Amino acid sequence: MGDKIATRDAYGKALLRLGAENPDVVVLDADLSKSTKTAGFAKEYPDRFFQMGIAEADMISTAAGLATAGKIPFASTFAVFAAGRAYDQVRNSVGYPHLNVKIAATHAGITVGEDGASHQMIEDITLMRAIPGMVVLSPADAVETEQLVYAAARYQGPVYIRLGREPLNVIFPTDYQPEIGKAVTLREGDAATVCATGVMTEKALIAAEQLAQAGIQIKVLNIHTIKPLDEAAIIAAARATGAIVTAEEHNFMGGLSGAVAEVVVRNAPVPMEFVAVQDRFGQSGKPAVLMEEYGLTAEAIVNAVKKVIDRK
Amino acid sequence: MLSEAKLSELKEKARQLRADILRMLAAAGSGHPGGSLSAADLLAYLYFYKMRHDPGNPNWRERDRFVLSKGHAAPVLYAALAEAGYFPKTDLDSLRKFGSHLQGHPDMKRTPGVEFSTGSLGQGLSAANGMALAARLDGIDNRVYVLLGDGECEEGQVWEAAMTSVHYRLNRLTAFLDYNRLQIDGNVEDVISFKDPGSRFKSFGWNVLECDGHDIVAIDQAMTAAEEYKEGPSLIILRTVKGKGVSFMENQAGWHGMAPKIEERDEGLKELGF
Fold first, then answer.
1. Within this chain, domains A5-168 and A184-310 share the same CATH topology
2. What residues of A are labeled active site?
3. How far apart are CA B41 and CA B143, in angstroms?
4. Rounded to an integer, what distance in angstroms lies between the CA atom of residue B205 and that of residue B184?
5. Nearest CB to B117; choose among A47, A88, A92
6. Which among B109, B127, B137 has the least Cβ separation from residue A61?
7. Whose CA is closest to A153, among A82, A90, A227, A72?
8. Which residue, A39, A101, A171, B196, is the most exposed by fewest CB within 10 angstroms?
9. Chain B partners of A73 at a C-beta cutoff of 8 Å?
């Protein structure tokens, strides 16, 4: 593990390469280009960067218009504005006509920290995955982010990419090649499975290590694609381990927890626990303090695994 | 400049579009006649004179684009597209029916010639801006047209988009405002005091023109003036009558979203000379 890198920084880096490789890639931002890291693309490719001002609804529908003419727009702002404020535009201008728009939303979840609940998006997975045909990506580190941004650009259709503000450890090797719709097994075990996404994937690995020291071997599935969900991998994990814990920096309702539960109950019912925000708004504070307060820690995953095993 | 022969052809097209609107809405049993009839002259002018388009090749890269931002006026768009040959006119009878490509509001994925899916008001100008920006990047000299409703301008996104059009100096974009002064709940001015759209758009930096929206010569003159303006986008305010051409529908908010019964259809067709 080297230096920590935020997934938003990896996104900015990926955009630079896409800009060089594909003249149809264009980027839109709503007055947050320094925070969303689209500013590098703006500097390098000013003709293909569209500053839209603080007008997220307009940004999303404009991106849709660009896509109708063959462009591959990446529209960026904070997750709370992209998925929340502009929901109707994402639904009607992008989702319904299944346009080739990529919405790269940064500052997702409570690790936004000091800005508080107004800026801490804990509902975006739910909102975005409810739109028919929308792909929802939630990378766990910088390497995965970069590869998924390239994959999103190659994919024809709408994609929502959930990114964060906080620097994270890099957990994947540089030659890692994630594939949209395919869960990644990071660790094998038979006592239970943890399905984790985003910042919680590294915590799941830490929890697995702690549990292993106590003689409990768990499987860890990294769910970088929340939609289309890798149902086969989840069903197989449920059958093989008999218990599932989900881990997400998001409200459990309709998030990764809801998505995995929908698959499990219909195909391989097993006990489940949700390490997630428990239907509360966030608040101001240091990210690490908030993660503790909201129960989004490796320790919380350890406890959830023990609990779910007891319920088997 | 419109020739006399072309003008009478366009008037006839507008009359045809109005008849088709009545026929398809009566067949559908629901839908929006008022704001469809008010836009018939504009669509006749655009689809049968002004626009560069090819019904045999709806995806022609260099075509002009028309975005019906007030998507509930889908009947007038469908009538124009059918008349132009994008699909058979017999399809119009399937409007709003299960399995039809003619959805209650325009669906670009189902209907050839529909440039953008609309229906949730306020999004069309933004999309038209995106189309104009893409054309500029690609060096295509097409034009983009968008039709807004006056009630629609109550949506905040219209004004976000209005700033964008000016910021990017989209001089190949022309917006039309169907200024028929009525919306579902009554007079636009009573609903939310939306007065003097011209000065509002002017203050946003638009080149604003105004004309009788049922006078095709006047529309053409305004369009010529819009084309001569190179600094940015133009708005042409079309003074229109909601329900135009069918006396009992004219200026009646109640006909915003109610389909004519068979006898009402026939009465309207008779008035139109059919």
1. yes
2. 56
3. 19
4. 29
5. A92
6. B127
7. A72
8. B196
9. 130
Which helix (H) or strand (E) covers residue A19, if one does? helix A7-21
Q: Output the domain CATH number for residue B66.
A: 3.40.50.970
Q: Which tokens belong to B61?
A: 């890269």
**pLDDT per residue as tens digits for the range B91-137:** 999 999 999 999 999 999 999 999 999 999 999 999 999 999 999 99
Q: Is domain A184-310 given the CATH code 3.40.630.30 in the classification?
A: no
pLDDT digits (tens, 9 = 90+) for A132-143: 999 999 999 999
Any CB–CB contact under 8 A between A67 and chain B?
yes
**CATH class of the domain defined by A5-168:** alpha beta
Residue of A nearest to B60 (CA): A69
* DSSP at B254: G
Selecting from B120, B126, B132 the residue whose C-beta is nearest the C-beta of A58 gives: B126
Domain tally, chain B: 1
ipTM of the complex: 0.97
pLDDT classification of B195: cutoffs 50, 70, 90: confident
- Domain with B108 in it: 4-271
How is chain A split into domains, by residue range? 5-168, 184-310
Q: Quick check: A61 and B157 CB within 8 A? A: yes
pLDDT at A2: 65
CA atoms of A38 and A84, how far apart (whole Å): 20
Of all residues in chain A, the percent with pLDDT exceeding 70 is: 99
